[in-house]
Write a structure and sequence with these properties.
- This protein starts with a strand and ends in an 11-residue tail after the last strand.
- It has a 9-stranded mixed sheet with strand order 2-6-3-5-4-7-1-8-9.
- 6% of the residues lie in helices and 46% in strands.
- By secondary structure, the protein is mainly β.
- It has a single domain, classed as Beta Barrel (Barwin-like endoglucanases), CATH 2.40.40.
- It contains 1 helix and 9 strands, in the order E-E-E-H-E-E-E-E-E-E.
């Protein structure tokens, strides 16, 4: 058996709603978005800030459903500011092909549509 690391979940163009360096750490994400792409509380994620190129890893904590919250906590808070766009991605080790669950969100971090595996063009929402 050969395991490969493949993209499992992705939230595309999430907007940071707050940054709080005085929290113990993690990335707060609206729990509706977590459900939408199959992310679990405590799951390891990669976060890429489109505005400044910062990249970091952390874990997710569920935010209020429907709130649109995307919060940087602890050390992650210095990696972005309110309004910055993020890509949030999680990977899995598997020996089978998988289709990642990828969601595009609007400026309020509400689900717009699922992205097809390897969409090359995005129309801004």
């Amino acid at each position: 058996m050969r395991l490969v690391q493949l993209l499992k979940s992705k939230i595309h163009h999430a907007h940071i709603t707050y940054a709080n360096a005085d929290y113990v750490g993690s990335l707060e994400v609206d729990s509706d978005l977590l459900d939408c792409v199959g992310l679990l509380p405590g799951e390891h994620v990669h976060v890429w800030n489109i505005e400044n190129g910062e990249r970091f890893e952390t874990y997710v904590i569920p935010g209020e459903p429907g709130s649109g919250v995307i919060g940087l906590n602890g050390a992650a808070a210095i990696k972005g500011k309110s309004g910055d766009r993020l890509i949030i991605a999680a990977f899995t080790l598997t020996d089978e092909p998988i289709t990642p669950k990828m969601a595009l969100v609007d400026q309020n971090n509400h689900f717009v549509r699922y992205l097809e595996a390897w969409d090359r063009e995005l129309k801004e929402v």
